[in-house]
Design goal:
heterodimer; A: 2 domains; 5% strand; B: alpha/beta; Rossmann fold; 2 domains; two-stranded antiparallel ribbon; 8 strands
Chain lengths: 427, 232
Amino acid sequence: MSEPTAVKRRSLMTRLHLRERMRDRDQAIYGILILGALVFPLATLFITGGSTAYIAQAAHAGTWVLLAIGLNVVVGFAGLLDLGYAAFFAIGAYTYALFASSQLGSSPLHHSFHFPFWLMLILGMIVAATFGALLGFPTLRLRGDYLAIVTLGFGEIVPVISYNLPDWTGGINAIGGIDKPWFPAWITGPWAGANSISIQQDSVCRNPFAQTQFIPCFSFGFDQVAYYVLIVILIFGAVILVTNLYRSRLGRAWMAIREDEVAAAAMGINTVTTKLLAFAIGASFSGFAGAYYGASFGLVSPDDFLFVVSITVLVMVVLGGMGNISGVIVGALVIYFILNTLLPSLASNAVSLANTLGLGSIVASNGTYPGLYNEVQYSQFLIFGLILVLIMLLRPQGLFPSRIREQELKHAAVQEEGSAVEEGVRV
Amino acid sequence: MSLHIKRGEVFALIGPNGAGKTTLFNNVTGLFQPTAGRVVFDGRDITGSKPHQVARLGIARTFQNIRLFDYMTCLDNVRVGRHVRMHAKLWDSLFKLPRERREEEKVTDEAMELLRFVGIAKQANHYARNLPYGQQRRLEIARALATDPKLLLLDEPAAGFTPQEKVELMALVKKILTRGITVFLIEHDMKVVMGISERIVVLDHGEKIAEGPPDEVRKDVKVIEAYLGKSA
């Protein structure tokens, strides 16, 4: 009786490799993340009754996830401490902002460009990678702390330059009116609430080939769901590419350099070009994120790329689990959530909690006591620091540290070895 | 001083502490730039080459104080050694092109074969740092062999070994020879040196004081002096 069901269950489980996938922690995290990314917009739209505010925030968090994935290549894989990572983010954002707005029209160049977003996404990547290599070239002979200081300096230079070149970058006034991403057309249908399937062209965009002309197009505009979908796709692509690198010749070379540079060189790894590649590839993801950031916000200001950005991304990487991509993504989301949702709402939550508990006396201000709301508000970053210290005490290797991939155990060669040993025992 | 190593032999370099044995290795493998003198390998002047260039030409080495990639698996340690014989470019790896996949499979098989060769295949998925000392030495040899060397430099491979392990090491060196690899080793343990090497050079204070087959060197007066001091 029970035999057929057992067989059926086994075949289903094995067909999907479900058991192994669930046992593999990283795969489980990816599964939850993908599921969450799919469910999140629907759930918030349903709960808030159509408000896209949370989706916008999630899309913003996605920028940080991209940054963390990129910095993980430099810090986690290759072991190069980069404290100026925000510089590449700025370079990507400014590349898009300058070549997709009217900014350069009022610059000494007197000609504005409006390149399409999709082209600039790639170009932002290439420009940032180039700057990564340029910075890397003279500095990669430095090690450890010394490299960190030089990258720190670079991270300071870039915003300062954009502050001080108002003719080009708008300086403190920032660059506004940046073009939104667009498609030539979009297909709409019942799934989007329309009555019938039709081609949607709700906006006009500059013809990329003749910039003074406008053509009908589908613009992302301020549609937060569109940005959310875009960033999820970008992150998905980035994760696949970085995972591929991690499991390749280059990924192993990075880790070898991280572990022992002398031995890596003696094994035939050209440490200079390998480290340069780490810097350039790490920077390219940052440039990627920067172009997206400029497009989604429509405003690029030097204030967005200060030292605190570099440090925040580094915290995301370290806290998530250096060198482990899924851990770093979780770390980025956790830190983003703490910084942008938990801490800002902490004061009002504390007040309402105190009120419901009947502790009205600690809510009101009294003499030198500023009241509960202000008290919590003032100690926001104290609390943030405490959370960080606590996480690092509980999980010193980060939330999900990199560990031996279990699927490697299943490699045929190893299995063969195992069975050979068993045979030996039997004989 | 000058020394020549013949293809296919086991050549040993011995000498008291501080004689300059490891310095010589470092000069040959490009970790240090020699201030004078020439290194010629396979008829090619490789003086002043970078370490990775030397490895590409076919000289691999192990280190006196084991230098493994601690937080990488044994399999990955050996696959790193294979790096220099691989061809995958950045784009191949980024997009996992079939060519790259095939190469990875091949390299994994080759790495497993080498782990089997040195006898630690069962530990393939352990972190290198978690291996016992003797297996770490073996792993380092496997990693060096993965670079497909013509010449293998072993820096005190038997240091800290039990007598049993020393015997196993000697067997391993003989097995390496059958692969057509020339072995050049530094060793303090005379039993090992006398047991496997065909020619020995004795170094003291950066000078060669003796050269020849083990039996001759053993009786050399200068060698005995260098090790034990001049008798009064």
